[in-house]
Amino acid sequence: MAQRYVRVETTTGQLHYGLLHLDRRVQVLDAPPWLKGQLTNLELPSDSYRLLAPCAPSKIVAVGKNYAKHAAEMGGDVPKEPLLFIKPSTSVIAAETEIHYPPQSQRIDYEGELALVIGDHCVDCTPEQAQTKIWGYTIANDVTARDLQKRDGQWTRAKGFDTFCPLGPWIVRELSPGARLQTFINHEAHPTQSATIDEMIFSPDLLVSFISQAMTLLPGDVVLTGTPDGIGPLQVGDRVRIEIEGIGSLENSVVLRQPLEEAIPEHL
Closest Cα partner for 146 from 258, 221, 244, 227? Predict the structure, then answer.
């Protein structure tokens, strides 16, 4: 099994990057692994921490319609160049954390995706240079308020709600080009999405190179590489699982987002 790099919070509130062992022990690193973090002698037993999203990106750069069949199901042509949008860092949540269904939307969709974790400053990179800037791979769910996406005409609100970017559960360094991505809803046997990542229109190195021509990618930033066909709605109470061969699975449940209660005057 490939080495699995994690980010955890201990029961005493300390944050660490580390290497996850098969028995769920975490061997702590002295810095994020893409910043040349080295293993220390500190080990965390399995009951002393919780998994966080495996990185804390300054930004998430996502790519739309990067699988031909998904472009077709969305009613559009295959893009001639990568179609970029941004998800805010505040949308990131960990595996086994709840996706909040916002009251502003009547339809939110799952979108299972391969996520790239950037390991070095990336500016104006060629595809060959960009490949060396990809430190590792994890799983993402580009949750989308589909009705708001259509209504707004641009994607910021629809893609940017808090909890709309589940990420994890860990990062691996290597991945087979033919690894299969699958999405399952409520433990059903048959996936709603199933494709190999080499079916992408624009490969990971081309995506990173293209993005770097517009904006600097920083260590720990995340690139979402697009979703295959088979997207569909999520309901409150649903559980969604995204699997990628060679990485593992990312699971989250959906709950209703509660509106903020009006403040109660102190004199009452």
Answer: 227
